[in-house]
Design goal:
Length: about 160
């Protein structure tokens, strides 16, 4: 699925780049959602630096939308860039599922150890991340990534 900038960045829903324990939690949660009739699927998993830059421009220098869609200017400031976050939407309603649909999905994801972006002050209803992660990656996470790589970050947050 193309994200827009001349095909340079694409949305990936591949589960392989996710941290192992987080990936297992997402797979279980999606199965439970679908077994319960929620028609949920992972729209986006790991997010590239190129795609994060496109998202950051939306609502700032690219319109529509009339408001920013993310505060993370780099994928190093989003757990998507670490394989520790996914965006989940409805197959039938896509992004237009009602809040109660997302809340039902969030209940299941929470039982699998994940945190929901719908609980934040600036709500991000489709966003789910590994529950032991802070809302956003810290400088410590970026330093660990730079010095020791992604598996070291996963180890620190208990998702390896």
């Amino acid at each position: 699925m193309s994200a827009g900038a001349a095909g340079a960045a694409t949305v990936s829903n591949a589960m392989e780049p996710l941290a192992p324990k987080f990936r297992a939690a997402v797979v279980r949660a999606i199965k439970r959602c679908n077994d319960g009739g929620l028609d949920a699927f992972v729209f986006e998993a790991f997010r590239s630096a190129e795609l994060q830059a496109i998202y950051f421009a939306r609502g700032r220098t690219v319109f529509p939308p009339p408001f920013p869609v993310t505060n993370a200017f780099s994928n190093l400031f989003s757990w998507h860039g670490y394989g520790l976050a996914v965006d989940v939407i409805s197959r039938a309603r896509h992004w237009d599922a009602p809040v109660d649909w997302f809340a039902a999905v969030a209940k299941i994801f929470g039982e699998e150890g994940c945190r929901w972006g719908g609980d934040w002050r600036q709500r991000d209803l489709p966003h789910f991340q590994w529950g032991r992660c802070k809302p956003s990656p810290s400088q410590a996470a970026r330093d660990i990534l730079a010095m020791r790589g992604l598996p070291a970050v996963w180890e620190v947050v208990g998702a390896a």
